[in-house]
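Continuing the batch. This is chain 6 of the set; chains 1 through 5 are on the previous pages. Same settings as before, nothing changed between runs. Recording input and output for traceability.
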Amino acid sequence: MVDAPEGAGRDAGAAARVDQLRRLIRYHAERYYRDDAPEIADAEYDALVVELARLEEEHPELASPTSPTATVGAPPSGAFPPVHHARRMLSLDNVFSIEELTSWSERLERVLGSAALSDAGYVCEPKIDGLAMSLRYEHGRLVRAATRGDGSVGEDVTANVLTIRGLPHLLALAPAEIPALLEVRGEVYLPLSAFAELNRRQEEAGLRPFANPRNSAAGSLRQKDPAVTATRPLAFFAYQIGEVDGGIAGEGGAALETHSGALALLRRAGLPVNNEIRRVASIGDVAAYCAEALARRHELGYEIDGVVVKLDELELQRRAGATAHAPRWAVAYKFPPEERTTTLERILVSIGRTGRATPFAKLTPVVVAGSTVSLASLHNEDQVRLKDLREGDTVVVRKAGDVIPEVVAPVLARRPPTAVPWVFPTSCPGCGGPLVRLPGEADTYCQNLDCPAQQLQRVAHFASRAAMDIEGLGEQRVAQLLGAGLVHDVADLFALGEDAVAALEGFAEVSARNLVEAIAACRGQGLTRLLVALSIRHVGPSIAAALAGAYPDLDAVIAAPAAQLAAIAGVGPTIAASVAAFFSSPANLAVVEKLRRAGVSFASDRYRPPAAPVEARPLEGRSVVVTGTLAGFTREQAEEAIVAAGGKSPGSVSARTFAVVVGQDPGASKLARAEQLKIPLLDEAAFRTLLETGALPGDRPPR
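Output for chain 6:
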């Protein structure tokens, strides 16, 4: 969903940038959290979030509860059954310097008081570069494992998590201590030694090595066959108790007064807890721990990208509370990105499934952030020109956030005298056809739909997990099928015969039959996946889901005018024009007809007829802020009740606030702001009346 920037008339430039940032952040969040295929570095992503948060703070009229600054992760991929978390799995706010870390501590001191923090203590933990996981133990037995997803809904990966060595299926506690329910939160990761061994096996098999441990762990965990996951030596570190009911929450409940005590209990229950975790007394000690962790990061057997710092006392955590997406009592200190120098040997161009021509750097291999880097994206022609990158240059390579390698700049003092400016090629390396830069865009495209490079990427994408999810049809096998002339477009896959496939090198009768059956099985995947699979420019899973929710089948999407498409929430004119242009192409329509004849389902898996209009809800269009602790509501329950009544529940008080609900230990700054603006203050009883009627005490007229 793309937020329509509010208040655009007040500052059109800020509104446009906020809208752009939200689109970028959502796109890259999906690539990272859902597809396990990040396209930018953590540091670059963090910079986008920081810029968006700054703009929203400077322009509160542009704030939105659906902004990435108020949400967590990305929606589940749909590859596994959904799991609704009883308590949301939040993200963490980031700091990038000791000064910012100190400012975080000072904000806590203003909220909680210096006396409360004077001997509270902090817990410092290595920030594992892995995949957040929730483990649910019932009466001591592990019954469910779920990914974080978007914080509210994750994916059920229990069968795969059960293969992780060292993870107890039964808690090692005395019978009287075993709780009826214990939810453990932690991180699934791939040790560096296991990552090296995995890549060694990939190379021996002639397969592409995995990019980094984090993506390898995520990909291993999301295998549909747990037997495959079992071959990947994943590991787990527990870092928090999410929920607990009975047992250790009863007689032994005193041990759960601190985070460090909770970790000790988890360790005693047999769960792996990181040995590098340390409780310290002051923020100065926290800074020292962060410096030590940065210096020792490569001595550890796993990737870390920072340090997580938490208040130790759980009561103080409760009082500090949380924003919509992150707790205030914890923060992630992110390590600065690492840099190395190496030689830029060649600047080459790759052709993607939509024909986009992307320059990339072939580097003399260099170890950056613990892994060997030999390739780095250069994004587009403008970036190469702006950085003045030339073949033969010595360049600074940065693996920011331990994810995507980046060529930062040339070392001009070491430039060879023979180095000349790079010129973007005019011919496609895949087909020899012209490369065209579209007006007003930074990208260049091969517009030949029959380009072999595009064909390869389109067919491979069609078969990918995010699209039609055809088991066993990766890029190498697609290349075989194209090379043998068995496939020219995605629809040809459904005409493949077992005998023709079995005749290819590397296939046998059984593997050929399995592939043909897997292709046949994908016919009923539904409209959402089919729209993703067709390689329509700008259409990924979220846009495909929006289109499938608005139309009953593919024919209705094809027939829809661009203006109608643009009116769908999250689509907009640019994407609508791309969809309309795709289906106006005779070549694309010919492929659609071949898919129809092959029996591929065009029916929507998400369509719901428009509902009849409903009466306005009591708080329609009103903002209600909650501060402090309520007896009958958790903070999340109060916010959900406001939204259910048609209102909004922002985290701060402004002139637009309708009322402020005040519980125990309210935020002093919110109360002061409300009194300054003369906004009504409600107790819990008045809040319940407001939810039911929309009325304020004493029949005060609405603001």
